[in-house]
Amino acid sequence: MTVVGIGARPGVSAAEVLAAVDAVLPAGADGVRLATLDARAAEPGLVEAAVARAWPLTGHPAAALAAVPVPSPSSRVAAAVGTPSVAEAAALLDGGTLLVGRTVVGRVTVAVAVGGAADPAAAPRGSRPWTR
Question: Can you give the residue range of the structural domain that contains 83?
Fold first, then answer.
């Protein structure tokens, strides 16, 4: 499974989201899912991007994301949304291994993790820290 964690500014378009995902998604990635902050999961651009590729989109509460150890925490992001990481934490939340760290493409921030639980509900929250 491949999880693309996404942080985005309000009003981001599907084209912007897909451009950012395409910039970091490894060729041949399978079982792709998108994950983000629950407050952003209903953003039209994120929803449209997920629908365009037939990828599931999951929103996680800020508290769950904040519990995930990440390599690139941001105090600015923490002040804005209540968690020091959205993209990396959302990618890692299901227990995967970080493949691509926080990458900013325009108004979208993405990160990629692989090998997590196929069912997000089955993964222990924040149980696997990021490793190089």
Answer: 2-117
